[in-house]
Write a structure and sequence with these properties.
elongated; six-stranded parallel beta sheet; 16% strand; binds 5'-O-[(L-methionyl)-sulphamoyl]adenosine
Length: 473
């Protein structure tokens, strides 16, 4: 299909309720999805929940619920919070969907029939938090640094293995050579380099089944084992399209995710796809992590920030702005309540909110009529903001737009429209209104609700004052 754009978030584990980390990726993906809709592409935006595996089963047990009941409850939290943040996904996939389970089995069976799966014995250390095997060198004080609250398990069992090592030379070529038929982009560059150097250092085959994890999808030819949760989860990107009869959106234009799950998305997934002869994603975009006041976010530290709290304090668009402007592009990004509130007041209550109120008031007092005009900002021109959005540099795009806002504020101070009359006043105000319409057009992917309000307010011919867009906190 021409002019299509398929974008995904990771499917989040239901062992946890939504937090600001999930919100970061989901809001960023929504901004990209909206941007591509605005430039006239047909967009399919997928998100969902990852519901199988030992970690989820353990969390259900702690709550005294059956795994399925537990998943139903927690998945709902994710499904319901995103629309409240003005996130417009096209489909929400759950891996306990029977259709997904069937498709996952079909894919595994295909890989098996291609001769890429064999039986072997695995002995190793397993981190249930990551749901993956780790090595001694990954550990700090015998614990996984990402999940210090989980005991590392020694596991030894007969598993099925995927011949990942066989695909390594192909993957290296595919990443390095833009002309290669399998070429895909890993962004940003630092993450591409990281993947390449790991691939070049040598890669083992991957254990893709579990003998002791009953909460999973059975291996079709050997029901005593279940499919390794990660391998099954990746297949969601395919099954979601099949379930919706939207296969023509394949392959993904961007898989959005953070650095913790880079390897699965930039190596394992592509090897699986080559094995089943499907086109590879065009780009894997990897962001870094939020730190909360310089610390890792964790339940035990009690510093977890939830989307519900953000929403209550800053509203949907306020939250989206704070997320996008602190987006951890290539490095971890430090966030926290104090910083957020300061930024909200400075940039939204004062910056954008104040500028819009100021110009609307001047227009209202002037009684001037303004020509009606619809601004299709991203369709009509490709400037710096488009370029930055193409690279997912949300923070820089907002800095660019806010420089425009500040420039306009200064211009008002300098030209003093309140001292002007007649033609001179009309000229100044028409220019200001035009610039506000441009700024508003540029802000559409970021602030969908607010830009709709501003668009109505500044549609012409008469422009009036309205309630403040972002009340000061
Ligand atoms: N279920 C797997 C993904 C399977 S996709 C086929 C998983 N789930 S998760 O719930 O742990 O989500 C991980 C993702 O949540 C990260 O890749 C990132 O998108 C987001 N974040 C989690 N914590 C984060 C921060 N502290 N900061 C920013 N994003 C983070 O992994």
């Amino acid at each position: 299909m021409k002019n299509k754009f398929y974008v995904t978030t990771p499917i989040y584990y239901v062992n946890d309720v939504p937090h600001i980390g999930h919100t970061c990726t989901t809001v960023a993906t929504d901004i990209i999805a909206r941007y591509h809709r605005l430039i006239g592409e047909k967009v399919f935006f997928l998100t969902g929940t990852d519901e199988h595996g030992a970690k989820v089963a353990e969390a259900a047990q702690e709550k005294g619920l059956s795994p399925q009941k537990f998943c139903d409850q927690v998945s709902k939290n994710f499904q319901e919070i995103w629309p409240k943040l003005n996130v417009e996904y096209d489909y929400f996939i759950r891996t306990t969907n029977l259709k997904h389970e069937k498709i996952a089995q079909e894919i595994i069976e295909k890989i098996y029939k291609n001769g890429d799966i064999y039986k072997g014995k695995y002995e190793g250390l397993y981190c249930i938090g990551c749901e993956k095997f780790v090595t001694e060198t990954d550990l700090v004080d015998n614990r996984c640094p990402l999940h210090p609250n989980k005991e590392i398990q020694k596991q030894s069992e007969e598993n099925y293995f995927f011949k990942l090592s066989k695909y390594v030379p192909l993957l290296i070529k595919a990443i390095e050579d833009p002309k290669n038929k399998y070429h895909y982009k890993i962004s940003p560059l630092s993450k591409r380099e990281e993947v390449l150097s790991k691939l070049k250092a040598g890669v083992d085959d991957l254990s893709i089944s579990r003998a002791n994890v009953p909460w999973g999808i059975p291996i079709p030819w050997d029901k005593s084992q279940t499919i390794y949760v990660w391998v099954e989860a990746l297949i969601n990107y395919l099954s979601a399209l099949k379930i919706n009869k939207k296969e023509d959106f394949w392959p993904a234009n961007i898989h959005f995710l953070a650095k913790d799950i880079l390897w699965f998305h930039a190596v394992i997934w592509e090897a699986m796809l080559i094995s089943v002869k499907l086109p590879l994603p065009k780009e894997v975009f990897v962001h870094s992590f939020y730190m909360i006041d310089s610390q890792k976010m964790s339940k035990s530290l009690g510093n977890v920030i939830s989307p519900q709290e953000l929403l209550k304090k800053y509203g949907a668009d306020g939250t989206r702005y704070l997320i996008a402007s602190s987006f951890p592009y290539d490095n971890d990004s430090d966030v926290g309540w104090e910083r957020f509130t300061e930024k909200y007041n400075a940039d939204l209550a004062n910056g954008l909110g104040n500028l819009v109120a100021r110009v609307a008031k001047l227009c209202e007092n002037s009684q001037i009529t303004f020509p009606k005009k619809q601004v299709d900002f991203y369709k009509s021109h490709r400037g710096e903001t488009s370029r930055l959005l193409d690279e997912c540099k949300f923070n820089e795009a907002l800095i660019y737009i806010w420089n425009h806002i500040r420039r306009l504020d200064k211009e008002i101070d300098k030209t003093k429209p309140w001292e002007k009359k007649g033609k001179a006043l009309e000229e100044i105000l028409k220019k200001l209104v035009n610039e506000i319409r441009q700024i508003n057009g540029a802000l559409k992917p970021f602030l969908p609700e607010t830009t709709e309000k501003i668009e109505k307010q500044f549609a012409g011919p008469k422009i009036k004052s309205e309630k403040p867009l972002f009340p000061r906190i």
